[in-house]
Write a structure and sequence with these properties.
The protein is of the alpha+beta class. It folds into two domains: 274 residues, Zn peptidases (Aminopeptidase, 3-Layer(aba) Sandwich); 134 residues, Alpha-Beta Plaits. Helix content is 35%, strand content 24%. Helix 1 packs antiparallel against helix 13, helix 2 crosses helix 4 and helix 11 crosses helix 13. The longest helix has 20 residues. It binds zinc ion.
């Protein structure tokens, strides 16, 4: 082990209690999005940067959703590494179904419970501490390190990383490391692309006994949803350049993300997440609207999917369809330099060498990949994310901090090559 890296690891061990307490306090400051007010959580980030005397900028196109950006230059020329995480978390409703306080950050049997524990206040904590530890070594490192902690990720919203990419491209750098949940056995080099569609169905409507008088908007919606679900049977493209990286890891993906996940990585999935129609049980519904979340694996052409959806709608003249959102599927080379550091450090520190996979969900890392900047995601287990009793294992969290610190260190230890 390189002596500087060993010093960093010793430092993390010495700071163990501080790291855990930092994460717990981060969780205790609610930042559900929607509605998206992250001020209390952001103040927690700011106070740590302040305590270390680190300069940062607040970039807040939305007053209650500040983004925090901090950078430093190292003494030796080199590449620019970006660390990125988000502050906002999924809502926790009124806590129904939780057996722990969603904002209590209780530490029980080695697990910290609370909304954001795994998605992604533990990952963001890893990024912040990586930034601060390496900042102290800036006289012996190469290049530049930028930390961006954003407030609008959960809704793919416009006020977070998307805003920074448009207005502050200086945060992008040459490579991105992100701590969104993956599980110890996996790092992500790509992700599927969400295509969200809104359908509206309008008919004349009638008395519920007079079904001969009008087609039913709700029945038509059910038929269209059934036909859309057939998109899931389309064969994935067999010859794209990521197939080989995904071959042979099904067992690991299923173990990390739940049985069936590996199957879904390579195929289209269709989820009619929202359906609303009709007024009364004894009326033929005149109106129904529904929204469908289609996830495209790498290699599918969205134009082809739109054509198939139009074909389906063409059989139902009462149906209109509009696109709400589309983020194309994206990927970096599965064997990028940062991938190598994450694999090697994870293996050296925990004994588990993570394998490259494409994620089912969507993260801000896509924005780097759209710019052809390699982005690697490595974080805690995603199994509990977004659900009740979301939690992170303390050991997994600390291992992730170690892997992030060491991988960022490795990247910034290499001088620029001509
Ligand atoms: Zn997340």
């Amino acid at each position: 082990m390189n002596p500087t890296k060993q010093r960093l690891l010793d430092r993390i061990d010495a700071d163990r209690d501080q790291l855990i307490e930092y994460l717990r306090e981060f969780i205790r400051r609610p930042s559900p999005n929607p509605p998206g007010d992250t001020l209390a959580s952001a103040a927690h980030v700011r106070s740590l940067l302040d305590a270390h005397g680190a300069d940062y900028r607040i970039i807040a196109p939305n007053d209650v959703m500040p983004n925090i950006v901090a950078s430093f230059d190292c003494a030796i020329p080199g590449r620019h590494l970006a660390l990125n995480g988000h502050i906002d978390v999924f809502p926790a409703g009124d806590g129904t179904g939780w057996t722990r306080d969603p904002w209590g950050a209780e530490l029980i049997d080695g697990q910290i419970y609370g909304r954001g524990a795994c998605d992604m206040k533990s990952g963001t904590t890893a990024s912040i501490f990586s930034f601060l530890y390496l900042r102290e070594l800036r006289e012996e490192l190469c290049g530049r390190l930028t930390l961006s902690v954003v407030s609008d990720e959960e809704t793919f919203g416009p006020w977070g990383a998307r805003y920074l990419f448009e207005h502050h491209p200086e945060i992008i750098g040459d490579c991105c490391l992100n701590g969104e949940p993956t599980g110890r056995e996996i790092y992500r080099f790509g992700e599927k692309g969400p295509l969200w569609l809104r359908f509206t169905v309008n008919t004349h409507g009638a008395h519920g006994a007079y079904v001969h008088r009008s087609k039913s908007a709700t029945s038509i919606a059910a038929k269209v949803i059934g036909e859309l679900e057939a998109l899931q049977d389309l064969d994935p493209p067999a010859d794209d350049n990521i197939t080989s990286a995904l071959d042979g890891i099904s067992d690991i993906v299923d173990r990390a993300w739940g049985e069936g996940a590996a199957h879904n990585v390579r195929r289209i999935t269709v989820n009619p997440g929202l359906v609303s129609g009709g007024v009364k049980v004894n009326m033929v519904a005149a109106q129904c609207s529904f929204e469908v979340d289609i996830r495209l694996p790498n290699g599918f052409d969205v134009g082809d999917i739109h054509a198939r959806v139009e074909e389906i709608c063409g059989r139902f003249p009462e149906v209109a369809c509009e696109q709400i959102l589309y983020n194309p599927p994206n990927w970096s080379p599965p064997d990028s330099e940062m991938s190598g550091y994450v694999r090697a450090n994870a293996k050296a520190l925990s004994g588990i060498e993570p394998v490259p996979a494409v994620s089912l969900g969507c993260t801000d890392a896509r924005l780097w990949r759209y710019r052809d900047v390699p982005a690697v995601v490595f974080g805690p287990s995603p199994i509990e994310m977004g659900g009740v009793d979301e939690c992170v294992a303390v050991d997994e969290f600390l291992d992730m901090v170690r892997v992030h610190v060491c991988s960022a260190y490795d990247y910034l230890s290499r001088e620029a090559t001509a």
